[in-house]
Batch of 2 targets.
Target 1
Amino acid sequence: MNYFSLNNNAPKSTFKNAVIKGLAPDKGLYYPENIRPLDPSFIANLSQYSNKEIAYKAIEQFVGNEIDTETLKQIVNDTLNFDFPLVKMGDSNDFSLELFHGPTMAFKDVGARFMARCLGYFNKEEENLDIRVLVATSGDTGGAVASGFLGVEGVKVIILYPKGKVSDIQEKQLTTLGQNIQALEVKGVFDDCQDMVKMAFLDNELQHKGLTSANSINVARWLPQMWYYFFAYKQLQQKELPLYVSVPSGNFGNICAGMVARELGLPIHHFVAATNSNDTIPRFLQSGLYEPENSKATISNAMDVGNPSNFVRIRKMMNNDIHKLKTIFSSYSFSDKETKLGMKELYKKFGYISDPHGAVAYLGLRKEVENNTDYNGIFLETAHPVKFLDIVKETLKIKVEIPVQIAAIMDGTKSTSEIKDYKELKSFILNS
Ligand SMILES: *Cc1c(COP(=O)(O)O)cnc(C)c1O
């Protein structure tokens, strides 16, 4: 499969090159040259296939012949060694799609594991690619990337995170693994981390260091997320009802992958991009003006993004036509106060404990369907509540059991370096 740059000023790219480079030379995001719908009978009979079979079928065309069939199947199987349960909320039409059963209990595990395995394969093929994955995280990306890439040969991982602005558990996940994983603590907010990462990619003096990104701008991180939507649809009983999917959105990679699933033929009636008070996209849909802002800190910190990088892909998919976009896509913003009310409502009505991100998605779904009764509604629960322990305990006044994966990591020793500006990052990379 070929990819082109959304800045339209770079040569076409193979999948392999797009994964290794992350961004196109003109700094645009890569986008697949065409998206070929799957056989409708495959989708009609989805329930008969295993998740691994479905995932292979969905991703195959985006990789093409650049990874042989057997290896790609193996990569998919290794990536998907956990479940994606769809949990019905009481006797309502609403379901939680739980994406947090992976090794770091964040939905980003899937993309990170898939990308790491693809890079590991390309490294074997070519030997000594000597790649540096540079990633800015507002919380969950870093942990999933660290875990997904741990021990992958030929790849060093450098993670930038805002000092004091990620939860204890998230910080442990970033800073305790060692080996090929290095965490850098930045005095500042997430946008400062992201800006530094962007500067590094633009820096000619770092060209020889094989930098790539493991944020959802990388096609191998972004595209596998479309699988969730197939796995959800597969588990629905009454498939004939119109399906609404609400996605807690920060960089808009997950929802954009869901829209790719729809392009492949999955019958999703409507998407809701639910955001916290970082409301650039809800404002864009209202005014037609794209006016990014600096990110604001919220209790759903993995979505504290003021300028969502994947939105250009969404616009491209909809031919840059906002009216067309609005027929299948809404976006609403919720404050921290509303988010806590959403968590309380889920707990009171259904006994369901959600993390703040899942609660934002639930609120988005409720707002879209309102009093509608003939529908299926799915909200994506992207993190295990234990990862936001303090907020969950304080909001719901309950105890939360710590799962074994997390308990183990809490004993690890934090190892990190502190950097305050781009100069320090650059010298760190040059010496790595
Ligand atoms: C990253 C993340 C999101 C936002 O996903 P995007 O693809 O950036 O929109 C939502 N919830 C959690 C828990 C996350 O880690």
Note: Residues 106, 108, 140-141, 216, 248-254, 302-303, 357, 382-383 surround pyridoxal-5'-phosphate (CB under 6 Å).
Target 2
Amino acid sequence: MTERKRIYLSPPHMGGREMEYIQEAFDTNWIAPLGPHVDAFERECAEAAGVRAALALTSGTAAICLAARSLDVMPGDTFFCSSLTFIASLAPLAQMGGVPVFIDSDPDTWNMSPLALERALRDAEASGRKPKAVILVNLYGQPCDMGRLLPLCQRRGVPVIEDAAESVGSLYGGRATGSFGKFGVYSFNGNKIITTSGGGMLLSDDEESIAKARFRSTQARDEAPWYQHSELGYNFRMSNILAGVGRAQLELLDDRVAKRRDVFARYREALGDLPGVSFMPEAPNSRSNRWLSTLTIDPGVSGTTNLDVIDALAAENIESRPVWKPMHMQPVFADAKYYRHDGDESRRLFETGLCLPSGSNLSQEEQSLVIRLVRGAFR
Ligand SMILES: *Cc1c(COP(=O)(O)O)cnc(C)c1O
């Protein structure tokens, strides 16, 4: 008997011209963290996002780090961040000595609550400690409520880092995510909607800031005939081989978004009637790439928990996960300040949330099996 292969949450999906671009890199011997694919990938990403400049990097985390450097985050500076996110959204700022203040989710978007943000900004104003940055995260592909969040920050002159690591290909008001903050961040990690195996992009309309970040991403070398440094930098540039993979993947982005949206639509159709189940909303004025199909299960109504479903799927060699554990519940941030929406929404989402296998290469048969097993866990 042959064993069925494991079904992953969000596996890579190659399929276009990746090998052709890799071959081109080999044929021209551009085997370095610079080269024609890197330049072209930056241009193509900037164009797709509708911003003036982009910088290709080794990871999304590296992009957040360079954004923080650009905003001059110093020890003791506060910054605000959605609590419900992956730690990479803010780890670089915390490592620079920045002090996080966490903001709860809005149930309509699962993203940063404008009500909680406004309260946090008011308190900051009253205490005379303006945050160095607000990090907005577009969770699981769903854009934030930009129409309400951005004016709150703009009015007070607080710069926004838009963590669009999970929302490549998503739109808000018809505009690409990654283009809304002072800086936008994409990730091309292996589990994201398009991938370079590992990689990221820093985006901005401010060409000067991107030029400075580019300088810092290659060890901050002064213009001199020898190696001279007036400040400290990083080694964060993307390989030309991987940029080739990224170019081929970007050509497929529309298709990948359509596939992930189909996967989500089929789950909702097939599971939406189950007691206590609600799918992640798609807020008005936005179009999510549906990177991961996510839902909540109210155990009081259903008698089943998210962890029961995860166990049932795991028994059949299928990967699924709870939603991100909020940052205000993390041991490493035990002392951090937290602003709630009303109840503790991000905690509720964590305690009831579930991410189902969502790959753009998930077959109809595989998805049917997942659906059957999830329904089975409710009996
Ligand atoms: C993946 C991810 C990142 C970091 O991207 P890497 O390329 O893995 O460093 C940042 N923020 C969020 C929300 C992510 O999901």
Note: The chain has a mean pLDDT of 97.
